[in-house]
Amino acid sequence: MAIEVLKKAFRILECMAESVVPLALGEISRRVNMPKPTVYRVLQTMLELGYVAQEDQGGAYLRTSQLERIGHDSRIHDLKYRVLHIMNKLFERFNETVNLGVLIGVNVHYIHFINTTRSLRHMVQPGSIDPFYSTALGRAIAAYLPEEEKTQLIEIVNLETVTPYTIKSKAKLRQQLNEIHRRGWAIDDQENDLGVICLGAPILEKEYPVAAISITIPKTRHNDKMQKEILKELLKALKMKKV
């Protein structure tokens, strides 16, 4: 009996680990194909242990940092190892800052970067976190989420103003994500940092966006020809759609 309970707990943990947005009790029950009372009892235990939390009393369940630490470092190390050659190639070709980020909740976490050696540059800081909706990295990932996860992400996010150019409408955000999915790449033009443009594309594994790579360019150095060259090499490296 104890072993069966453990199996159920791990199924629920795996379900929550696969989602980038909080999940309601009913949704978790549906995804793991277990009765709601069973899922509720398991979740209450995980709440006590600190592996999950609730948005509010009776609200959706979300992962905590304690859950994130299970296997997180090894997955991140593996991801960095697998794409480092792509980042190095892009850096050598353009000598612009190259970023690698993952989506956790509604934020993009920068897990690796190669800063340009040019004097005019935007420096990424270790451990940086930005809202997904104001960055090319975040939008590139969000655009390729399964439709249900994408909808939930848009619903729960609070569109705060990062710069005067930050998107303010959820309807326009969804429209942008649809366009990004169609063409294969994302851009933020001073939406996260003034004077900075970023071009990004997702890293897909079995059609799921596990991360994204972006290239940061100072606005004064950006031009249409440069953008086309960067997108051509970025999409080719990540085997995405053509521009």
What order do the helices and strands come in, and which of them pair?
Layout: H1 2-17, H2 25-32, H3 36-49, E1 52-54, E2 61-63, H4 65-68, H5 72-94, E3 97-104, E4 107-114, E5 129-131, H6 136-142, H7 147-156, H8 170-183, E6 186-189, E7 196-205, E8 208-218, H9 224-237
Antiparallel strand pairs: 1-2, 3-4, 3-8, 4-5, 6-7, 7-8
Helix pairs in contact: 1-3
Written account of the structure:
The chain has 243 residues and is an alpha+beta fold. It has 2 domains: 2-68, Winged helix-like DNA-binding domain superfamily/Winged helix DNA-binding domain (Arc Repressor Mutant, subunit A); 72-237, GAF domain (Beta-Lactamase, 2-Layer Sandwich). Helices cover 45% and strands 21% of the residues. The chain has 9 helices and 8 strands. It has helices at residues 2-17, 25-32, 36-49, 65-68, 72-94, 136-142, 147-156, 170-183, 224-237, and strands spanning 52-54, 61-63, 97-104, 107-114, 129-131, 186-189, 196-205, 208-218. The strands form 2 sheets. Strands 5-4-3-8-7-6 form a 6-stranded antiparallel sheet, sandwiched between helices. It has a two-stranded antiparallel ribbon with strand order 1-2. Strand 3 (97-104) and strand 4 (107-114) form a beta hairpin. Helix 1 (2-17) packs across helix 3. The longest helix has 23 residues, at 72-94. It is elongated, with a radius of gyration of 19 Å. The model has no long low-confidence stretch (mean pLDDT 88).
